[in-house]
Design a protein that fits this description.
478 residues; Endonuclease, Chain A; 17-stranded mixed β-sheet; two-stranded parallel sheet
Length: 478
């Protein structure tokens, strides 16, 4: 496989991305505390538009829980529209969130006092196929700065990079503690932010029927203390939409995943909430079977929520991991789950991130999971950047080092030095070992079938489910 280059790029507009637009600045925000802190600064500068697109939304969260007097999100948005006569706030949430998501359902169903303003709308998006989810996580502010990634503005998303086993601030609004959680969001500024805003406006129009005009003449909202990872860089926007009411399906997200993984020469680094898609498993297995293919490091969650998720998503992840292990003839695979060490035993960290880094040449951050639903059933939005010059390649490599360092409770420089000394990501992870945090190898589950568990075609389908499409869905899922 030839290394990507300016002459042979991974990103192909119209195939694996919708638009490639320049970002004046772009930053990867690791974990909820970092994302929410920067988001708080940006929305406080909003003058004309705050557009939030989410799988879930809970206005009772605080973006800065470390500040006791900081307002709840809903109260903050209400104060902003009252202060600024041109500001409009729109929030669009997947309709089934009231039943399926962790937020409180009644405010989404019945409304809440903070919404009672003529320039504020909180709406449920019912424009989706049976069992399809609106899974995009987007916030656009004045079309100037946009955030895309794995984090909704809801409960159980905030955490610091330390992932303490018991953090006093890591609690739901009702005071119930939740486990450590790891996630990633990307912030972009400039034309890239306007491209993301176009995606959000199209979603709003599909759901509500209102045409929201682009924002013009907005001020610079990039926070002074947010150091960009990239400057003046092309950013690809990849979308996923199901076929619905005559509109064709859009599968840019999965095409981007496949093309990026296929281009790997030296290393693939993945963080995935779900790792179950047979199409991805087949590609990774073929890569492992090659004598000189890339090392593959995958960080996943160890535990799943509820019996149904454990059976389908957990069961299929076990089968896919075992499939990869059988293909790993040359010892180039490591599948791990992160933990925090404590006297009572390991405290697992929930992996909610969706990120792919290929060599030093490509990074993708977004909402797409590596499961069937993210192929062409759920709506998704992902951003990608290629390492088209030495500076960008150093930045992409540095991002991988930051992520591994966080999981191992060490420094990015220590990761960089150890990888250089060992000549291997896998050996570097083994050598760096455990500190307060650690990466544990996923256990060997023994001999398991390679095909997905029974009922996957119904519970984790790749496309809208109709009875007459059952055979197609079963084929795509397996």
């Amino acid at each position: 496989m030839q290394k990507p280059s300016p002459d042979r790029p991974i990103l192909k507009k119209g195939h694996n991305c919708w638009r490639i637009a320049p970002a004046k600045r772009a930053a990867v925000l690791i974990d909820g505390a970092n994302y929410y802190a920067q988001l708080a600064k940006v929305i406080r500068g909003a003058q004309k538009s705050i557009l939030i697109i989410g799988w879930d939304f809970d206005a009772s969260i605080k973006l800065l829980p470390e500040q006791p007097d900081y307002p709840k999100l809903g109260d903050l948005l209400r104060s902003l529209v009252e202060e600024r006569p041109l500001l409009e706030v729109r929030v669009l949430v997947w309709s089934v969130a009231v039943l399926h998501a962790p937020s409180a359902p009644l405010p989404l169903l019945l409304g809440a006092p903070w919404e009672d303003h003529p320039r504020t709308q909180v709406r449920l998006d019912r424009e989706h196929p049976l069992y399809g989810a609106h899974h995009q996580k987007i916030v656009c502010v004045d079309d100037t700065v946009a955030f895309v990634g794995g984090m909704d503005l809801t409960i159980r998303r905030w955490d610091t990079t330390e992932h303490l086993a018991n953090h006093p601030l890591r609690k739901d609004p009702d005071g119930v503690a939740y486990p450590p959680v790891h996630d990633v969001q990307m912030a972009v500024e400039g034309e890239a932010a306007r491209a993301v805003s176009d995606v959000a406006r199209e979603r709003w129009h599909r759901a509500i029927g209102e045409n929201v005009p682009p924002v013009t003449g907005a001020a610079d909202l990039w926070p002074d203390d947010l150091q960009p990872d990239f400057t003046d860089t092309p950013v690809a926007v990849a979308r996923t939409f199901a076929s619905w009411k005559g509109a064709p399906e859009v599968t840019e997200g999965m095409a981007l995943t496949i093309d990026a993984l296929s281009a790997a020469n030296r290393s693939i680094y993945i963080e995935a909430q779900y790792l179950t898609a047979p199409r991805v498993g087949k590609l990774l297995a073929e890569s492992l079977a090659r004598p000189h293919g890339p090392e593959i490091v995958i960080i996943v969650r160890r535990l799943f929520t509820g019996k149904m998720e454990s059976f389908v998503m957990g069961g299929n992840q076990k089968r896919l991991v075992q499939r990869l292990r059988r293909a790993d003839r040359y010892g180039r695979l490591g599948v791990y789950y992160p933990v925090v060490l404590r006297a009572a035993g390991d405290c697992p960290v929930i992996i909610h991130s969706k990120i792919i880094i290929v060599d030093d040449d490509f990074v993708r951050v977004g909402s797409s999971n590596l499961n069937n639903r993210s192929i062409a059933l759920d709506t998704e939005c992902d951003l990608a950047i290629e390492g088209s010059d030495d500076e960008r390649r150093r930045t992409i490599a540095g991002l991988r080092e930051r992520l591994i360092a966080e999981h191992l409770d060490t420094t990015p420089q220590a990761v960089r030095d150890t990888v250089a000394a060992e000549g291997s990501l896998l050996r570097a992870i083994e050598r760096l070992g455990c500190n307060r945090r650690c990466l544990r190898l996923i256990p060997d589950f023994g001999k398991l079938p390679t095909r997905p568990v029974f009922g996957t075609w119904l519970l984790d389908p790749p496309r809208p489910f109709f009875l007459f499409q059952r055979k197609r869905a079963k084929h795509d899922a397996g």
